Amino acid sequence: MPEPAYKRVLLKVSGEALMGPKEYGLDTATVRAIAADIKGVVDLGVQVCLVIGGGNIFRGVSGAAAGMERAQADSMGMLATVMNALAMQSALEKLGIPTRVQSAIPMAQVCEPFIRRRAVRHMEKGRVVIFAGGTGNPFFTTDTAAALRAAEMGCDVLLKGTQVDGVYSADPRKNPDAERYTTLTYLDMLSRDLAVMDAAAISLARENRLPIIVFNIHEEGAFTAVIKGVGRFTTVVEQ
Q: What is the pLDDT of residues 208-232, one digit of tens each?
């Protein structure tokens, strides 16, 4: 059995990933399946933290496009991530995984405020930490929040679970001829405008020499497989 390739990791899960086959909201079966995969990684002895998106409930960019003030719309989107984080916490704890939610927007009655040293201590004790509320600031995506938290936590790698098994030259669901990449550099991602993560997140990862791995979150056991260094995924590193 291959040993885990990493000791401390951050998994970014988009809000859309939690919808499963639905068009809106949370699909309980999908949340449970992702939680079970996270448990598989925790059982390997890997320290895990997560950043959860909120696009299944509300997207700030969409709200702004509909005429809302962007800062206000982004605040609504950040609150949506807290709802998703609490749902994931519930699913993980039903599997016996101790979990803490830390929000960049303080709301003491439902979760902890984000405190870096406390988050590190939770992980050292074997708890999964879910970071909600994005960065706590408008105009920043949860991808950027994921790169930021991964750097702050001293993670070995940032993993992004998507709808496909890596980074492609185009959406493979729309273009069957799209090329799948095994390895890319940060500059490749930026210069080719590969819309997997936003430019701010990629730049932050590059500055901190933080590898990014993109894989399909919906394949059973995919997160565990990637941590063992097997399966299908794309790795983004410095050249």
A: 999 999 999 999 999 999 999 898 9
pLDDT at 2: 64
Give the C-alpha separation, 13 to 57, whole Å. Answer: 14
Q: Which domains can be identified in the chain, with CATH numbers?
A: 8-237 (3.40.1160.10)
Dig out the tokens for 132 from the structure: 């909600």
Range list of β-strands (E), 60-210: 99-103, 112-113, 128-132, 157-162, 167-168, 180-181, 183-185
Burial of 117 (0-12, 13-18, 19+ CB in 10 A): exposed
β strands within the chain, DSSP E: 8-13, 47-52, 99-103, 112-113, 128-132, 157-162, 167-168, 180-181, 183-185, 212-216, 234-237
Residues of the chain with pLDDT under 50: none
